Sequence to fold (162 residues):
Amino acid sequence: MSVSIRPAAADDVDFLVELYADDDVRPFLAAGRPYDREWVVANLESLVVAELDGARAGAMAWQVESERNGIVHVSGLAVHPRFRGRRLADEAARLFQRHLLLERGFHRIELEVYGFNERAQRHAERSGFVREGVKRQAYRRGDGWVDSVLYGLVAEDLDTPR
Fold:
């Protein structure tokens, strides 16, 4: 199994739209942001495609939170249903972490996931993120409020066994 990541390109748009529209992906994406064709096209430069043995298998997004402090926020991590259960997301996340911290020179990566999304929390911790806290009742969801869990990662964390 060979996992790789690369910047998203124009010919990835259909795959990304399909991925983010999947019924098993959409409920876990950040609230208040449509991950539709318009969003994908507008944000193509901040998207990364994960491939498994050369086939498009997933994606993730990033944005600079603080240029001065070298902080980048990652989001939109999704794996196509036909590639689930292979730990693809863990390996892709580790590659992405190294890319952002070691190649792009960012100081810190931040990740925020819904408190009810235990699968995303397990993934974050398996891939090396350090749980830093909880934002209580951070987001409206349906008729109520949900917590979010905050994770961070700095270069020193890359080789720390978890």
Remarks:
- Helices lie at 13-21, 37-42, 88-103, 118-126.
- Residues 114 and 148 are 4 Å apart (CA to CA).
- The chain has a mean pLDDT of 92.
